[in-house]
Amino acid sequence: MRRLLLALPFALLPLAVAHAVDEHDHDHEHGSLGAHEHGVGRLNAALDGQTLELELESPAMNLVGFEHAATSDADKAKVAAARAQLEKPLALFNLPAAAGCKVVSQELESPLFGDKPDADDHDDEEANKDGHEHHHDHSEIHAHYQFSCATPGALKTLDLANIFNTFPATQKVQVQLISASGQQGTEVTSKAPALKF
């Protein structure tokens, strides 16, 4: 019995370590490099009763092909196109129609979207406070969605195929999933884009 209990924390260790690197090394210029890996996104998914929450974090490189501020018309068009795709989460996450999910709220955040015009002033002093300030050399895009699903029992799988199709530079997504059947950490790829709730 003891051996089983010990096995679980180690199974989750790689994700925990990646998370620790992400949170604690922001005061080093390149400290978050381990967690900020091109081609790799992160998705936290939680299903609680009829509420489904999805939180997608990805290097901007995966979604728009660059990480600098968009100055040219072509770059601005790419950012606008990516944002438009992210604003259609029901299509992006391919939620089954039978589940009857409706978007309750969605938030998109990225330096590329111009969400934080004052980030330059506070970058140095705030970086150490909360560990979540964005460095300009590592632009991330964060998308947070909340859905209300009339028939959550119909959510048997989460299919991320459309994320890989829409953003082909994304090669894999590290998923942390919490549902009635417990917590699981897994990786999905374009070849195997679905996971079971």
TrEMBL record:
Keywords: Signal. Residues 112-139 are annotated as: Disordered. Pfam families: ZrgA. Residues 128-139 have a biased composition (Basic and acidic residues). Residues 1-20 form the signal peptide. Residues 118-127 have a biased composition (Acidic residues). It comes from the Bacteria. This is DUF2796 domain-containing protein. It comes from Pseudomonas koreensis.
